[in-house]
Structure formats: C-alpha cells, structure tokens
Amino acid sequence: MSQADFWVPLNAHTASRSEPLWYWLPGWSFTATIFEPLLAALPGRHLGLDYRAFYQCLTQSGQTPTFNDAVTLLRQTASADALWVGWSLGGALAHATLSHDRLSHDIQSQAAADITSRIQPRALCTLATGSRFLRQSDTSQQGMDEATFSAFRNGFERFPAKTLKRFLALCCQGAEQPRACIAALSSQQLTEQHAPLLATSLDWLTQYQLDDRQLNNQHADILRLAWYGQHDALHPAGLTSSAALSTIPSCGSSHALLLEQATIPLLQRALLELINASAGKQP
C-alpha cells in the first residue's frame, strides 16, 4: 500500500532532506485542507490524511473497518521520521498510531510491534483530542455523555445533512467569532454523499482510549504538545504536553481552535518551537 493513496500533499513546496515531514490528520467529517492556514508558516513537506481515499483502502476487504483497523493501516504506511499533528479524531488516530499497547489483541502481534518500533516520530501535536471521546461516568466532566452521542448518531442516520450542520455549530461553540468559524469549517466539511464513511468514522470515536504513558513506553523521548480550547463544547481532556514543552500555554476557545484567528499565530509559534525542540532527534 502506497502512502500516496491517502496521504495527499498540502503544499506545493519541494522540501529538502533537511526539512521535516509532517502528517496532518483532520477531525471527523473534515478534509485535511483545513490545516492550510496553520502549515503556511511551517517549513517542510506536508501530507494530509484524505478520509475518502483512506476509507476506500480500508473497505477493500468488504468488512466495516474499526478504529483499530484504521490505526493498523496508518502504521503500515507511515514514514519512520515525521512530526504528527491531529485534530480531534485525527489526534486520536495519530496518538494510537504511535503506540500499540492499548489496542485490541488482533493487532498486538510481533509484526505490529516491529512496525511501531520502526516508526520513530519526531513529535506529536494533538488539538482538542481527549484520551477518550465519551464521558466515563456521570460525575466526569471529560467528553460527551453517551446519551447525547447516541442522539447525535441517530440524527445522522436520519438527517445527515442537518446533523453535519449541527456539528459545525458544536465545533464553533465558545469561539469569539462563531459565525466566521462556522463559515471556515463548512467549506472543509464532507457532505452527506459520503454517509457510509462518515457513519463508520463516527463510530471510531467510541472505540479508543488513549494513554500518554503507553505512548512514552513505546517512544520514551517523543515530544508531545496537547492543546485544548477553554470553552470546548465537546469537553476533551486527558492528554498532556511533554515537560520540555510545558511552558507553551494551550490557547483557543472552541473545539475548532485551529481556525480561530487569534489562535493561529500562537499555534504556529508553538509548532515552530516543536520543530526546534525535536531537531536533535534527526538521524
């Protein structure tokens, strides 16, 4: 499987060998071009995950792919040395791709461990990605409660276009300029024409639980940057930044913090710091 099948170039710049490779993984229902305002100021070669081509690869067997299936395919096609940036679901996929301990037994084989050992990431940045998507208990403030998610899932099955619009509003709730945020997001959102892909990847949100300790066990020196919006309506939490990056404050207001005009330059600066901090890890 060639990475060209679902890793699409996000910039026309021809990077030199000394410049970093970036993987950009978008959130549920969105295209990777949503990252273009961010990556414009970042050197290197930028590849974005195209969920449409990715889904086609995953369904060649005729089976409905799970979150673990998606992670397995990403792991098989990823280059050894790269910086990973994932937003929401994309952050969960990136985090899980770089570790394997928390995944199901069907991919906890020696072959899977060998692949993970081959991947030596320079750094990982997650944006609005929680350690789990669903709330674990009635007393927890982290994640979406199961009743709300179930209603959203049922709504998507019956009225996909309306539910996709509702998701735009959820993503931008808490933003300083929610209308502008919604307009920016809507131009990057897949339509109901991709309903099978969207329904399958929506279920992926319920199928993972991430743990920074497991990631550190696999890549002890990986640099992690985890950002959350202060008023994110989806309430993600649970992932942390590396101690070396703890002085970089998380900024943003909404789940779509990556498109907030006040946040973009701050996040670009943080990602540049991530490049500099990880430069010593290059072979």
Walk me through what this model shows.
The protein is α/β, with parallel strands linked by helices. It has one domain (3-281): 3-Layer(aba) Sandwich (Rossmann fold), CATH 3.40.50.1820. It is built from eleven helices and six strands. The chain has a six-stranded mixed β-sheet with strand order 1-3-2-4-5-6, sandwiched between helices. Helix 1 links the parallel strand 2 and strand 3. Helix 3 (67-77) packs across helix 4 and helix 7 crosses helix 8 (178-186). The longest helix has 15 residues, at 264-278. It is globular, with a radius of gyration of 18 Å. Residues 101-108 have low confidence and may be disordered.
Summarize the SSE layout with pairings.
Blueprint: E1 7-9, E2 21-25, H1 36-39, E3 45-49, H2 51-58, H3 67-77, E4 83-87, H4 89-97, H5 110-118, E5 123-127, H6 146-158, H7 160-172, H8 178-186, H9 195-204, H10 212-218, E6 223-227, H11 264-278
